[in-house]
Amino acid sequence: MKQVVQNYKSGELAVLDVPVPGCKPGGVLVRSAYSLISTGTELMKVSEAGMSMLGKARSRPDQVAKVMQSVATNGVPATYRKVMGKLDSYTPLGYSLCGVVEQVGAGIDDVKVGDLVACAGNEHALHAELNWVPKNLYAPVPDGLAPRHAAFGTVGSIALQGVRQGESQLGEVALVIGLGLIGQLVVQLLAASGVRVVGADPDPVRCELAERLGAAACGDPASAAVEAAVAELTGGHGVDQVYLAAGGGSNQPVELAARLCRDRGRVVDIGKCRLDLPWNAYYEKELDVRFSRSYGPGRYDPEYELEGRDYPIGYVRWTERRNLACFLDLLARGSVDVEPLVSHVADFDDAVETYQRLKDGDLKAVAVLFRYPGQTVETAAPEVAVPAVPARPSTARAAKTPVRLAFIGAGNYATSMLLPHLAQREGVELSTVVTTTALSAANAQRKFGFAEATTDLDAVLGDKSIDAVFVVTRHSSHAELTRRALLAGKTVFVEKPLALTEDELAGVLAAVEESGNDRIQVGFNRRFAPLLQEAKKRFGVRTGPASLRYLVNAGRLQHGSWYLQQGTEGTRFAGEGGHFIDTASWLLGADPVSVYAVATTGNEDLQVVLRYPDGSTATLSYVTTGAPGFPKETLDLVADGKVLRLDDFVRASVYDSGRKRWVSSRLPKARDKGQNAELAAFIKAVRTGGPMPVPLESLVATTAATLAVQAGLAGGAPVSLARTR
């Protein structure tokens, strides 16, 4: 079999052919599927190996002390031979992987051949095709968790043990110094525990990534931003805990920890940074300094790790193995997301080149995975269900005039893009606005003339005089509010997205089936834009398959935007991507059958390829790193010797056989993206009882395709959109 090794004397890295390890009692033989490079710990070892002998000695004073003790005991010649023999040997790399059990040793009854397991340990979870792993250093992978994500189990356990040492409590504020791989995981674990997190790292890309993964604020530790964020979140008292997840030789992290920690706060060292504690600062605040030892209790205990002797749960709740299993469970339930941390996936055969690129700085990465050849992991093709729309009795009724509307939510989009079009519309009465805060409801009532303002949602849904309800709240509440409004017999206009999960989508359709009410419109307004409608008409009927390219220059989010709260509100694409999928499907006249998605480091820029039944394809480039002055949306549709081009809803054109056929007049700066026409079509459907502007089947298909993007990023393969019956 092949294994990655390094000669610590010369610094040479190699992939060697070595014997297959035997399957000893008390453990299992595991064939690797994915292993994770720790860009902190492992790169430190790789860098040290490339140093001179003097450099090695300076970087490892602990080892120098051992050498000096050996000299005193055994003399210089014997010590020299011992040290040089050890240095001039190949040593393994790696300590976190996921693979398939290939053989089960005596005494093992919790897994069987073919099971997927996550493995830990710098002697047992190596970058090698096969590893023998003792019982307490592996854990079964929960159903549905991708192997590439389970490979994070060990580093996740390190982060989890650090958080446990901090003894965080709901409502506390924590500072994480160092936003590398471990720091990013600590941020997510704290946020999932109800702790508000401030991150500190000199790399702005890592700061932005941490904010997207749950941090309240992040910044350069040398700037005033971190201190200001801590002061704001803590009322000037300082954070409850500081987690040192940084490396290097600077003493800045421990000094910053002392400055920003509250009186009698806790400082937890997880990484390997310099720890020259400023005595006065730590003494005056009586700071509690704690160390987090690797993956948890059991680490470095040979009776636990090698002999499989567990600690009783009544005495040691979270052991090394229980931490590993807990982190895998958090991954499986979506409480922690490691996909945005994956910077690069390399074939195992390219291991040496990958390490060299990391060492030289050519490959900037938070986490890098090795993918192994010939793995026997049986993974079905990723699939997202497109639920069948229930058979619906014709329950639509014509509304009296005026049509009475209620709004649930009155945020920026509702007050800037919807209500101005409705407030002066003939035949429409703004009946009631309901919000979670009394003042926002009162403001909407004053500005737009609602008859009533309230915070009582049940009263609105129970008011039989209200014909239609607009759901314009945060994304996480859309599906549930839509479901309740349908069951109450209301026609519903819900802003995108309709749902953030497959279960939420199924819940909406269950309400349709239960109530017989299918009167839903999702705010996919671009298909109603007059300019795009005219361009489609000019393009004419299509006979052959088409290629569509849609570039969305979404730009950076402002600091503090709730769109960054991915744990509760879904990803940014989940919230906005349905617009562009709906537009593509409307132009192509069909619903997609598969989705393939790839992303740059940190999932900042997405490339989404949609495939349609007739062979047409649509490529959506959803980017956040472009120039702010470039137009937000540009679209090209190519088929049958013709090209349709849309320039950000300002100008459109259609070309035929290389000759410009039609070009629209340039519109004024106020782009019409179709909201007014969409609302007119919705009000007409409510008033007349006629068909909804967009068939429910299309809304469901677009929502399923949007959900498939995240599934595709996680699985790294095309996702089939399977129609259910």
Descriptive labels:
single chain, 725 residues, alpha/beta, Quinone Oxidoreductase, Chain A, domain 1, Rossmann fold, 4 domains, ten-stranded mixed beta sheet, seven-stranded mixed beta sheet, 32 strands, ADH-like_C, GFO_IDH_MocA-like_dom, metal-binding, GroES-like_sf
CATH architecture descriptor text of the largest domain: Alpha-Beta Complex
Overall helicity: 25-40%
Radius of gyration, rounded? 29 Å
Order of strands in the sheet with most strands: 17-32-25-26-27-24-28-29-30-31
How much of the sequence lies in strands comes to 15-25%
Q: Write down the overall geometry.
A: globular
Mean pLDDT: 88
Based on secondary structure, the structural category is: alpha/beta
How large is the count of helical segments? Answer: 24
- Name the CATH superfamily classification of the largest domain: Medium-chain alcohol dehydrogenases, catalytic domain
**CATH topology annotation of the largest domain:** Quinone Oxidoreductase, Chain A, domain 1
Distance between the amino and carboxyl termini: 47 Å
Major sheet details: 10 strands, mixed
Number of extended strands: 32
